[in-house]
Predict the structure.
Amino acid sequence: MNLRDPNKRAVAAVIDEIESGDGREIVCDLATGVGKTYICRALIDYLAEQGVRNVLIVTPGRTIQKKTLSNFDPNHPKFVPGGDFDPVVITAENYARGRVGDALHDPDALKVFIFNVHLLTKPTVKTSRAAHQPDEFIGTALYEHLRDASDLVVIADEHHVYRSEAKKFHEAVRDLNPRALVGLTATPDKADYQVPGRVVFQYSLAEAIADELVKIPVIVYREDGHNDVRTQLADACHLRKVKEETTKVWAEQNGLPVVNPVLFVVCQSIEEATDAADVLSGPGFIEEPGAVLQITSGSKDDALAALAGIEDPDSPVRAVVSVDMLKEGWDVKNISVIVALRKLASETLTEQILGRGLRLPYGKRVGFSMIDTVDIVAHDSYRKLLADKEALLEHVLPKKVSSAEVGAKIAGASAGGLGKPLLPAHGEFTGQGMLNFTGEVPINDGGYGGSTQSAVVMAMAAMEDRLTEAGVEQKQSQTTMKPVAGAPSIVFPSKRLLEKPETYSLEFVSSSSATEKGRSFKHEIEVELRKVALNATRNVDGGVSMVQQNLKSGTATQQSWPLSKVREDLEDRILNLPQLTLTHDEVEHAQRIVKAFLSDAVETDAEDTTPWQEARAQFALTQLEKLVVASFSQKLAKTEYEITTVTVPPPIQPWPGKTMSKMQIVDKVIKGMGYTDWEQSILPVVHFDALSTEVKLANLMDVSAKVEWWLRLEARGETFIQLESGSRYYPDFIALDKDGVYWLVEGKSNSEAGSESVLAKKAAAEVWAKEVTDLGQFGTWKYLFATEAHLGQSSSWDTLLTVTGARD
């Protein structure tokens, strides 16, 4: 049947345990999306080969039951091929009909019963059950017929549903007294792990991710405080639309069938589901006829039929809104975005929801992130999900077993006997070769962790030992360093600057200064959707380590404000400053300032036709207020200068000494240490002096889609601005954005930002940037001065430009 490796091992473990046929109950704990269906079908073939002729598959609901029936239908897309035996499939509807009815009395016919567990439960005073009623054709009740079958084996799909606390379900299954009861589940009941030998196989979601058998979950969130339902749904629709557009192009370029990405929304109640479906069907969301499908316990057959065809390329469905009905057993491959509006009540429910989007559209990873990932929109609960990420991915991992061992087990089974179990009991499971960090693990774009430096050093030493044992040679130390391939050289114009202070009151806030400040708001400000992938990798020794990877941000949706409201709010903000006394003159000054502020920020006077998105409007309020408050002590610079040009970086330079990955930056930077693994740095190795400013700036630039390259400047190199006092100012970075603009970037702590010397450097650099740009021969230069406070308000490069006032 060409089973995947974990499925082979699961089948071997089950065979080993049920070989004696003594009625024992066992459980396979297998991650969602790996293929429990194939394990079920392979077990049936094994049982048939051993002479078993009665197999009962118990399902917990009609959705899973229909899916299971389709697995045995050769004309259905969900059919599982490769079996040697063609069973007679018996359901509650067909057991007394023709060939099916005859097979019940044929001892040689392989019979697979597929029954909903509700059918098997005992009748009560108020309810009757057909399976417990005598049947004229069978000669007894169907339930009794099953219990009397001496070779009956029960396969319990979603085994956790039949836990001991669910008394009726528990009794209905176990009172059949089968030769063996095999439970298959991705979320086993915790009580099963308390029974020695009950869980015979475990394959965690972390392992499935590491082995590339499922998609990579990506937690998507925004940090602007908007976590209402409409915002979450709007962002989810935007993410789905982007995936639809990009995957269509990718599929056509690669000659593969187009897969339509679908949004899956999980709600708390039918009322909440109806409200969500109404929102999605409204303007600004999906807006396609028949594109939103609501599925609840009361859904009609036409809705269920539409659900069954959701993977069809011609299906109009782009969003499925559900309560509890689809939390397990619904196996489709084109769920690409998930929104859980209900509170995630337990770890089990969390993985069941996540599991709906884990299956790979083409059966394997294709190397295109839009297809290989599933986005979970979690604006209000992302912190909890990230904090509980190990529980979410079932981070209890066994040591990997070789394919050779699996082959020996399978071969032994077909020969009539098996040796010892492939895997130890659950209590013996250990995580092999895992690097455990507290807090967030910095990955790729240099997030911040909470581990101590000593822990990192110990982890690195342990990894080196494992690599040495595995025969992996360590790289020899380097002697020289060059810029990364394709990186540009930058001509830096050095210049002398002179400043002259001038103090303002509100009356003297010039219209020109307000106009200049307002130019920063010509364009909308994107609100970022932050993305954190919960990935996993195999270690040298076969164990699994989980990694948290910060991905490039997406774009969030925003509300819009009419320009008339923006104008009114701006005037109210500066008129209500505590430094001012409200007078008629002050009102006129406020109107003048706001008019000047907006004069270059809008393209038309038709206020109602030019709405502003919320982020731009909110930042305009704060920035205009800062302009007015700063006018009391603001310094304006006038300059004299001469220019010297320096080309950086050198084409070759000495290797900068010791290095480590930026992922190992924890609670401080090590002076003299070179940090590597950057995406957009011109140099492969970068040194830092400050974690709270320089490292944060580097991380923002390194993941921004709007920054092409960035360069860390030497602290005492040739790239300086000489002040009129004779001292030299050495900025921290140069960044080159996608528009070809050069940014001179400086980061300062809050305590230093207000010092006289720092302010002098800042003013000098601002004037320098304008004048060297006006010369025309050095391109466009701008200056970005960022404090810890600025960086604390900024989740992206785009936001930082606005917060600092650096944007035109």
Q: What stands out?
A: Residues 4 and 34 are 8 Å apart (CA to CA). The longest strand covers residues 544-555. The domain at 210-392 is CATH 3.40.50.300 (Rossmann fold). Confidence is low (pLDDT under 50) at residues 395-477, 497-504, 635-639.
